[in-house]
Write a structure and sequence with these properties.
Length: 65
């Protein structure tokens, strides 16, 4: 999971799950608690799916916004 996808690609990360921002990669403290939980749950789910996916080259796993 990273917020700077171009850098992750440059350094050769094989599975990349984009996050939201540098200070708050998995949420925004200005949003309601329930919304933050849903967002975090979704992103971590995408990351777990990425780990379980067979890949043969660098892959960026897109997340719904």
């Amino acid at each position: 999971m990273c917020n700077l996808v171009p850098i992750a690609l440059t350094v050769g990360a094989n599975r990349i799950v984009p996050t939201i921002s540098i200070p708050y990669p998995l949420g925004d403290p200005e949003t309601p608690r329930e919304e933050q939980w849903k967002l975090r749950y979704h992103r971590v789910g995408v990351a777990l799916d990425a780990l379980a996916t067979d890949i043969s080259e660098q892959t960026v796993f897109r997340v719904k916004v």
